Structures are given as structure tokens and as C-alpha cells.
Amino acid sequence: MIDQRLQMLRMVAHHGTVTAAAEALRYTPSAVSQQLKQLSRELGVVLLEPEGRQVRLTSAARSLLRHADTLFAEWERARAELARHVDEPSGALTMCGFSTAAAALLPPAVAGLRDRFPRVRVETIEAEPSECYELVFAGRADLAVVLLTPTTPSLSDPRFDQRRLFDEPLDLLVHPEHRLAEHATVSLAETAEEAWIVARPGTTYHQLTMASCASAGFTPNVAHYANEWETGTALVAHGFGVALVSRLARWSGQHSVVRIPLRGDPIPARRILAVTRAGAGTSPTLDHALGMIGATAEELIGAMADQRG
Amino acid sequence: MIDQRLQMLRMVAHHGTVTAAAEALRYTPSAVSQQLKQLSRELGVVLLEPEGRQVRLTSAARSLLRHADTLFAEWERARAELARHVDEPSGALTMCGFSTAAAALLPPAVAGLRDRFPRVRVETIEAEPSECYELVFAGRADLAVVLLTPTTPSLSDPRFDQRRLFDEPLDLLVHPEHRLAEHATVSLAETAEEAWIVARPGTTYHQLTMASCASAGFTPNVAHYANEWETGTALVAHGFGVALVSRLARWSGQHSVVRIPLRGDPIPARRILAVTRAGAGTSPTLDHALGMIGATAEELIGAMADQRG
DNA sequence: GAAAACCATGTAGGAACGCTGAATGATTGA
DNA sequence: TCAATCATTCAGCGTTCCTACATGGTTTTC
């Protein structure tokens, strides 16, 4: 509804190269290049300038993008309002989320949506938070459940509406005979000298562990890298170190480990966000999905409180 | 930039029929009908319903139109801001206005624009106020100088930005030997018994005369209909009646008539407006055009004050 | 009350638009 | 220096979208 070429320009701005933008939009670089050239001609302003083997956006392009964000958000609002005019919503709704969220929050939402809107095809995609933003931005997903990290887009990014769902506390995972194993709670600072098991660099979860330790005043002494909960738990169970796990994380239970809630002010936690395209939030199906996810989140918070007490 | 089909829908809403909308957009009715049908399919809502031999907009369509107005206005703002990023504006700027305005206000603006922006092709169209709104709405003109009348779109119409330029006082035109000819000013109520020369019904000027007399408490006794100032003046000069002329109206001067300023509270006047598409006002060329017209208007107001004194 | 005018919509054909794929040139990193 | 990455151009082709004409229904007119 809004000229495709504006979305192309947004993608180029976001990815930095024509090629990556084309890939995100499932076009060839050739198509994006031609379209943006023509857009530039039509508007009478230069939008892209060569910079090395890439392109750089001109100030005119950046000015245009600000308005483009407004336009796309307004169109999302229009779509959402139109969706209220149909008796029986149909079409597709795609949700995405990172592993824990995808496991804990999305399935109840899918069930609720199928129940309430039987004609809507509901799909989910498990993806890293950064990819989740991509999916929502590109329109291939309508809703994402992600973590707040320093690398995610700003909460005021005009392309997205982001709302806090809940804060998931973090626990320390130790061997049953570890010196801290009997503690009811533990502060992260007490673990500064421990051997650590963390996820591999580049993953969201690695960032989280490093950031948590950094805010507790130390850099973890990393002994092992493990991306899966299962692997990390096994390493802890063998006494190779301690690890950080989020409260909702689940694994097989084959390994004997102790989970100790962290204390602190604030309590170390990761913030869970629901992300939609700006303006899209008021469509009935998305509204319902957000409601279901929020309710599930509240339930989980309740369960977490029980555990803690 | 905004999907053409939204403009088609806006035109159907404005004109009431697919055929008239198509004509305004220089399409065939078939094209408009097909496009709107496809739009309806894509959005999953019914937009048009048959009503007699015409169509009626559904509530979904009206909802969509509200957002469409916002979208188009935002795009105009984007275009205007982009125009600030080019060193030497080019392209075309079309202004339109009703006869007096076209004669008095537009030529200085054209001259000023040509001087300031030599590469911009400036064009003018003389048209009735209602047609002026059409031209601006359809994008075939960028600026219109019109009269405020009861039939023009509301000042808060989201499709337009309308600003007051000035109020043009009205004068009574009488034969040199008329009983009122020696008066310095005259109130419209004193002319209730006169024979009147008015423009033909359906014209803006007819409306103006009838409305002015109505607000003075009488219905004019119409003796002759004349659309051109020249003809009306000739009739007055032959003693066939009195007529209303606006202060800026000019004619050949062959006919011997007396022009008497009207008095009253407020002084009978017609309000001159500058109309642009919503959001378009900040482009450099349009900004300059508005400035020129405003300046010319102020000069004329000054000249009018001199005349009156 | 029948005919004419008006209006929306459907179908078929043609023009224009927009995409793909391969080729080119330029830059960066190994 | 060679390979990889990136933007851009050109030719070709499929899709989209408009026009022209025809149809069916409604309103107005004589």
C-alpha cells in the first residue's frame, strides 16, 4: 500500500548494503538497485552515494526515511482498524520468539488463537532476537517475543511498538556439592572467582551472562562454552563450573544440579518484550495474541513467585 | 507513493460515483471499478455497495478513508521536506484561482516564482472555486486561491490546508444619477427595493450576492442575469439596476457607473483563501508562492484602504 | 409506460511496469 | 595478486493494469 521502494530504502538503511536489503526482501540486488534509482529520479534527489563497495544514504534519504516510518505505521493502524470491520478474521498470523519464549509463551497463544479465530492460520518461528526484529520488520512475522539487550533496536524506534511483558529472574546453576549449594539465594558478586560455563560468543545468551557479570563488577572466568541448556547443565553436573540460567529454562532433568535464585537490587533478570510493527497492535487477532501472551506471562510470574517462596 | 487505489477510493467518496471519480483521475470507470474490487479482496472487507445505479461506501471504506487522508498528508510533508534537499528546484508548479484572483493575485506570484526558481515551470489555471478544489485534490494543481462559500469543503477537511489570505470588501455599483450615487457609503439594507443585476444561478458569484442580501434581510429583486463584470457594468450604466462588485474587480471603464463602498458590521466582504493539499505547504516553491500571494494581498488591502479613505 | 440516459461491472487484448539472470567494474581482504 | 564482495547495467520475460467494448440494472424523460 505504501510504495515498495520506500520499504527497499528502509531495508538498505537497516542493513547497509543493497545486497542484504534485497535478501531480506527476497529480491535480487538488481531489483533493489533499479527501483531505488528510479525513486531517486522521480523525487529529484540523490538517495544513495557509493562508499567503497557499499552505499551510503544521503541526508535526503534519511529525511525521507523518517516520513516512511510514519507512513508505514499509519498504514498498519489502518489495517488494524480495517480488521475490526470483518466478522470472522482470516488470513495468517505469524509469531516468532527466541527459544525459551517460543517454548513457554507461544504455544498457549497459538492454542488460544486457533480457538478464538479458527480461520486464521497461525504460525510460529523460533529465532534469535535479532532475527525476530528482522522478521517483524520485513513483514514475515507479525509479533515477536524477544529479550531486551543492548544490541536490540531502541524502544523508541519508530518502526516498532515494543511493550514489556515481564522480567524473568536469573538463577545460578551449581553442582550439588558446591559451596553455595545450600544457600537460599546468592549474589552474583559471590561467584566472581568461579569457573564459568557460558554460551558461545555472538549469541544473545552469551551477551546476557557477560553483561550480568559485568554489572556485578567482574568478568567471568570462562571454562566452557555451551549453547544448549542441556549441555551446559551436564557440564555443571560434572562440577566443571557454574552457569546462569533463566527461570523459565527447562531441560531433561537427567543431570543433578542445584538452582539458586540470585539476589540483588535489582534482582538480575532479563526483560521480555513483545514487538510488533508500529501501529499494528490494535488488530483483533494481534490484540488477542498479545493478551494471551500477557496472561501466560503473568501465570509464569506467579509460578516463579511460588518457586522463590 | 501511496497506493493509487486509495486515491481512487477518495475520489469515489468525493464524487459519489465511480464514473465521476474515474473522470477526475483520467481513467475509465472500468479501471476504477476493477482496482477497488481488487483492493477490497486484498483487505478482506467490502468497500462499495450497490445503491440504485450508484455505489455507496461501507463503514469500512470510511474508516479506511480517514487513514488515507493522513497518509496522503504525510506524504505531502515528505515531498515538501525532500524539496528542501535540492539546490535548484525544478519540475512544475500549478496554481489556480477564480477570475478576480487569477487576475489580481496570481500574475505577481508567477513573476516572483519565475524570478526565484527559473527552472520551475509555473502554470496557472483560471477556474471556479469548486473546480479549484478538484484540481488541487486530484493533484493537477498545487495551490488554489478561492472564496470561502457555504459549499466549499470545511476548513478542517483533512485533505486540504486552507489559510485566510484577506477579506475583500464588496461595493455597490449604481448609475451616476442614482439616488444613492452621492453617498460615501451605503448599507445593503437600503437597496432592498432596488432592481438587481446578478450573476446566473449556479455560479459562485450568484451565491455571494444572494447570501449577502439574505444576511442583510432581503431577497434581491432580480432584473437581469450577467456573468461577466463587463456585461453587468453595462447594464448598470444603462440604469437597469444595481449590482454587487468585489473591490478588486476591474472592467474596461467604458461605462459610466459609481462604485459605493458598503458599510455594516461586519462590512460585507468575501473571504479569500489559499488552499493546498494537506501537508504540502512547506515545500520551498509553494512556500514562496504563498509568500508572494500573501504580500500581493497585503498590498491590495493597503490600496483598498486608500480608496476607502 | 416505453425509451433513452446513466451507472457499475465483466471480458479480452495490449502496453507498461518490474523482476530475474548474466555481465561489468570497482573495492576490499587474504 | 587472486578471490570475494558489492553495486550497477542490460536484455528478456512475466505480471500488472489500463482501455475498449459489451452487459445488466436503475433512473429519468417524454
UniProtKB/TrEMBL annotation, chains A, B:
Signal sequence interval, chain numbering: none
UniProt GO molecular function: DNA binding; DNA-binding transcription factor activity
Sequence ranges assigned to domain HTH lysR-type in this UniProt record: 1-58
Pfam families: HTH_1 (PF00126), LysR_substrate (PF03466)
InterPro entries referenced in this protein's UniProt entry, alphabetically: ArsR-like_HTH, LysR_HTH_N, LysR_subst-bd, WH-like_DNA-bd_sf, WH_DNA-bd_sf
Keywords: DNA-binding, Transcription, Transcription regulation
Domain of life: Bacteria
Tagged with keyword Transcription: yes
Any one cellular-component term (Gene Ontology): protein-DNA complex
UniProt xrefs under CDD domains: HTH_ARSR (cd00090), PBP2_LTTR_like_6 (cd08423)
SUPFAM superfamilies: Periplasmic binding protein-like II, Winged helix' DNA-binding domain
Family: Belongs to the LysR transcriptional regulatory family.
Protein name: LysR family transcriptional regulator
